[in-house]
Amino acid sequence: MKMEKVRPIIQKAIEEKRWLFEPEAMEILKIYEISVPDYCFSNDLQEVMKGAKSIGYPVVLKIVSPDILHKSDAGGVKLNLTNEDEVRKAYLEIMANAKKFAPEADIRGIIIYPMVESGLETIIGVTDDAQFGRAAMFGLGGVFVELLKDVAFRILPLTPSDALAMIKEIKGYPLLDGIRGEVPKDIASLVTTIVKISNLCSDFPEIKEIDLNPTYVYEQGIAVVDTRIKVGR
Question: Which CATH superfamily is domain 38-114 in?
Answer without folding.
Answer: ATP-grasp fold, A domain (3.30.1490.20)
